[in-house]
């Protein structure tokens, strides 16, 4: 398999279009056409991880965090980022990053945290905006149904738990074929009027190429008139964080003990106890202080995340328990998630789980 073929496989799990705008995801180093000898899955791509990949005969590293986050103006080996990139290039090791694309899908980072805590009745904490598109096109009434079926098969018309969703109205289309035209209906040089259907279908941003390909390949006209509009609607299936309910309520100290056990951490920074039982829990892997308000609005009794600053803890306001279990700790399950996914999707290929410890934080 090539690097691109494995990247395409990963994007079935977490389309890159679902990543945050500030992020740097996808293939960061390497040739997409190169044949892959083995894949090493890691949370972070450090120098030791590149060395591990070389030792194991893996020329593709699939990493959660992007080693190149901001632009590199030079590669001299002065920083750990430059050294990683230089060593990868020298040894023809490709690096592919998932990051917030995997954060934002239901079966990604936060879904795995919810699995660890046994959360039920889950929903996205902050549904994403700008991830939906609307297609408007015009088709002869005789070709409407066949075109609709092709668009549905390409991923258009999916609204939550409903599929094959569309709206159409009828009207009269006009066109004048030029001398070099090859019209399906009508004649060159003559104004033609045709009963047409105007179709409207929504689809997710990651399906745009497939939907437009289906439109062009299945539309009867030589020239296809269409519009694609970006929608600001929230998309309930994609977004930051997750909220759900524990199978049974716990008091706050019991809940913190559960977090210590599940995340394997010796200590947890937390806000004042509220005195309430914990049943509804919000989670967000990595730096999640920005979502404290969303957790409160969702009615969470506790919010589990990382990198909460001093003043952020005041936002608990006695309404919920804030639990900072650590950046690495909240994302540690991610490499196992990716390893399991690739092993299932490509069972006859060498997929290795990195044994290099990449957590930069120690506890004394």
Write down the overall geometry. Answer: globular
Determine the CATH topology of the largest domain.
Udp-n-acetylmuramoylalanyl-d-glutamate--2,6- Diaminopimelate Ligase, Chain: A, domain 1
End-to-end Cα distance, whole Å, is: 45 Å
Return the CATH architecture of the largest domain.
3-Layer(aba) Sandwich
Query: Helix segment count?
Result: 11
GO molecular function, one term: metal ion binding
Family: Belongs to the GTP cyclohydrolase I type 2/NIF3 family.
Pfam families: DUF34_NIF3 (PF01784)
Subunit structure: Homohexamer.
Structure description:
This protein is α/β, with parallel strands linked by helices. It has three domains: 3-102 and 333-353, NIF3 (NGG1p interacting factor 3)-like (Udp-n-acetylmuramoylalanyl-d-glutamate--2,6- Diaminopimelate Ligase, Chain: A, domain 1), CATH 3.40.1390.30; 109-126 and 239-324, NIF3 (NGG1p interacting factor 3)-like (Udp-n-acetylmuramoylalanyl-d-glutamate--2,6- Diaminopimelate Ligase, Chain: A, domain 1, 3-Layer(aba) Sandwich); 131-231, Alpha-Beta Plaits. 27% of the residues lie in helices and 29% in strands. It is built from eleven helices and 15 strands. The protein has helices at 3-13, 47-55, 80-90, 100-103, 109-117, 144-153, 208-218, 252-263, 292-297, 327-331, 334-345, and strands at 26-29, 39-42, 60-63, 94-97, 120-129, 132-140, 167-175, 192-204, 226-231, 234-250, 269-270, 278-287, 302-306, 321-324, 351-353. The strands form three sheets. A six-stranded mixed sheet has the order 5-10-12-13-14-11. Strands 1-4-3-2-15 form a five-stranded mixed sheet, with helices on both faces. The protein has a four-stranded antiparallel sheet with strand order 7-8-6-9. Strand 2, helix 2 (47-55) and strand 3 (60-63) form a beta-alpha-beta unit. The longest helix is centred in the C-terminal third of the chain and has 12 residues, at 252-263. It is globular and about 85 Å long. The mean pLDDT is 96. InterPro entries: DUF34/NIF3 (IPR002678), DUF34/NIF3_bac (IPR017221), DUF34/NIF3_sf (IPR036069), N-reg_PII/ATP_PRibTrfase_C (IPR015867). One of its GO terms (molecular function) is metal ion binding. This is GTP cyclohydrolase 1 type 2 homolog.
